[in-house]
Amino acid sequence: MPDLPLGDLLELDRRHVWHPYGPMPGRQEPLVVESASGVRLRLADGSGELIDGMSSWWSAIHGYNHPVLNEAVRGQLGRMSHVMFGGLTHEPAVALAKRLVDISPEGLEHVFLTDSGSVSVEVAVKMCLQHWRSLGRPEKRRMLTWRGGYHGDTWQPMSVCDPKGGMHELWQGALPVQVFADAPPAAYEEAYADHLRELIERHAGELAAVIVEPVVQGAGGMRFHSPAYLRVLREACDAHDVLLVFDEIATGFGRTGALFAADHAGVTPDVMCVGKAMTGGYLTMAATLCTSRVADGISRGEVPVLAHGPTFMGNPLAAAVAGASIDLLLGQDWPTEVKRIETGLREGLAEAEALPGVREVRVLGAIGVVQLEHPVDMEAATRAAVREGVWLRPFRDLIYTMPPFITGDDDVAQVARAVCAAAREG
C-alpha cells in the first residue's frame, strides 16, 4: 500500500483497527508515529518528536533503532526468519535458553519459549496444574495470589488478576475461581505475613501454586512491596507442598534495580515468567522457566509432555534479538544507569507531592509513579504530557513512567516535568 495522507490513515485506523482496551470504531484519535530513534518518537504530522516515557509498555529498554539490535535482526534474517520448533531446533533459541538459565535465580533450569507475556503465564499455570495431576494429585488445581495484581489478558492470567475494580471484572462467573490474599503492604508487617501463611496452610490441599508479581505490581496499580514477603511465600509454599510462581514480565531485566525482582529477596521460585524487555522491544517473545522438580513431575504423568506449542515458538528472529538485547544489557553498567534514572525521577517528581489531588508519589529503579486521589482524565493528562514533549499513557488513578535505560539526565528531568504537568491537569 502506498503512503497514505495522514487524514486517510487516521480514518482507516478509526474504522478498522482495534486498539488496546479501546472501543470499535475508535473514539479517540491516536498520534501517528512515523519513526523512532534513541528515546524519541517522531510524529507523522510534522509536529516534532516525543520522548517515550513508557519504553513502549516497558519493553524498549535500549531505546529505538539501536545499531546492535538492528544488526542482530539483519544477521539472523539472512539465515532464516522462522522454522517450526516441533522436531527442529536452532542456535538462537538454544543460546537464548542457556543465557536465561545462567542469569536467572539458581535452580531454574528449563525454558519454554512463548510468543507473549500473557501466554507465558498461561504456560506457567499449565505447568503447575499438570505437575500435580501427573503426581496423582489432580485436586491441587487452584492458584493463590494477592489483590492488586495483573498477569495478562488471556484466560488463566485473567483469573489471577485482581477480581475487583480491575479490567477483568466482566468475566467473573466464567473464570476459574482462585484464592486471593489481601494486597501486600509496602512495608513489611508480620501480621500480613501471618495472613499469607494462614491462607496457604488452609488451602494447601487444593493449591497448585502461588503466583505473584515480585516487589512491583504492574498494571494492577503500580504498587511496591517489601521483598521480605517473597521469602515468606517461599517458606510457606515449601512447608505445605505448594509451587511458587513469579511473574517477572514487567520487572525482569533490571527495571527495579536488580536484574530480576526475585534477586532483591534471594529467592528462587519454582516457575518464573519473563517477557517485555527480553527482546528490547523489537519482537514479541517471552519465556517460562521452571525447576527440574516441576519438569520431572510433568514427565512422570500419563501424558508425559507439556501439551503446548505455539506456531512461532522459538522464533529465530526474536531469539536472536533477545540474546543480543540481554548481552547489550549485561555488557554495560546497567545498575548505575538505572540508579541514575531513579535519582532523577525522585528529584523531578518531588514537586508532585505538593500538588492538589495527589495521593502518593513513589519511585523504585527506573519506575516513577504519581497516584491521584481520583480517576485520571486520560485525554487531559496525555495532552499535558505531549505539550511537555513526552509520551505517557496514564490509567485508572495513575500517571507513571518507565523510561528506557538510555534516557539521559536532561530527558529524565523532562519526563518528570511531564508527569507533574499531567498530574496537575489530569
UniProtKB/TrEMBL annotation:
Its main location: cytoplasm. Pathway: Cofactor biosynthesis; biotin biosynthesis; 7,8-diaminononanoate from 8-amino-7-oxononanoate (SAM route): step 1/1. Its EC number is 2.6.1.62. Belongs to the class-III pyridoxal-phosphate-dependent aminotransferase family. BioA subfamily. It comes from Streptomyces alboniger. One of its GO terms (cellular component) is cytoplasm. Keywords: Aminotransferase, Biotin biosynthesis, Cytoplasm, Pyridoxal phosphate, S-adenosyl-L-methionine, Transferase. The modification N6-(pyridoxal phosphate)lysine is found at residue 276. Homodimer. The gene is bioA. It comes from the Bacteria. Substrate binds at residues 57, 150, 276, 309, 393. One of its GO terms (molecular function) is adenosylmethionine-8-amino-7-oxononanoate transaminase activity. This is Adenosylmethionine-8-amino-7-oxononanoate aminotransferase. InterPro entries: Aminotrans_3, Aminotrans_3_PPA_site, BioA, PyrdxlP-dep_Trfase, PyrdxlP-dep_Trfase_major, PyrdxlP-dep_Trfase_small. The lineage of its organism: Bacteria, Bacillati, Actinomycetota, Actinomycetes, Kitasatosporales. Catalyzes the transfer of the alpha-amino group from S-adenosyl-L-methionine (SAM) to 7-keto-8-aminopelargonic acid (KAPA) to form 7,8-diaminopelargonic acid (DAPA). It is the only aminotransferase known to utilize SAM as an amino donor. It catalyses: (8S)-8-amino-7-oxononanoate + S-adenosyl-L-methionine = S-adenosyl-4-methylsulfanyl-2-oxobutanoate + (7R,8S)-7,8-diammoniononanoate. It is found in: Cytoplasm.
